[in-house]
Amino acid sequence: MFKGPAHAGPWLLRCYNHPVSASNNIYLVGMPGAGKTTVGRQLARRMQRRFIDADHEIEARTGVGIPLIFDIEGEQGFRDRESKVIAELADESDLVVATGGGAVLRPENRAALKHGGTVIYLHATPRLLFERTRLDPNRPLLQVADPLRKIEELFAQRDPFYREVADIVINSLGGSISHLVKQIAVALSTKAKVGLADLQRGSRH
Q1: Residue 122: which H helix or E strand, with range?
Q2: Which domains are assigned to the chain?
């Protein structure tokens, strides 16, 4: 397990699973409001990669917003479309992808993420997620009488799956996005070096 440098403060970087490859996609997973799209765009610019927001990709393909997809097809229909997009993106390379909050719920999606690249979990507390999303009408699962309770329920359901697929876990507690992106880049670079060293040691045995 890799832990970030002592000065990393609240970001608390942690790495798991397989080594990072420079040619692999980078996937951001986490709850709605964790900052996947904002962080992903800046990370892609820093790494000179193409950025794709999986939810926006679904909207571009269907020509309608996600709330309307939920209204017409239900969550099941949306998840089917989401799985198709994730599977197709896993066949590409050198992408930074912001996934939807529920993308990790299906085993086939988790397998595609693991196979297709490096997964970064942006972790945030339910209370912080609530503050970030409470005025956003484009999150259909949160359009309920008690959105904070709904976020807590979704968090309890999804957090184990996020951690299952994560190569790097970062506590997204606020602060500068540019600093967070820098911390992610450092973690990716460090883990890549660790993976290379492991391969070199293995080749000598």
Answers
A1: strand 117-123
A2: 2-197 (3.40.50.300)
Give the separation between CA 83 and CA 11, rounded to whole angstroms.
30
149-173 tens-digit pLDDT: 999 999 999 999 999 999 999 988 7
CB 17 within 8 Å of CB 167: yes
All residues at 6 or more sequence positions from 14 whose CB lies less than 8 Å from its CB, including other chains? 1, 2, 3, 4, 166, 168, 169
Task: Report residue 147 as tokens.
Answer: 């959105």
Q: pTM here?
A: 0.83
Is the sign of the CA dihedral 162, 167, 171, 177 positive or negative? negative
CA nearest 180: which of 49, 41, 43?
A: 43
Residue 137 DSSP label: T
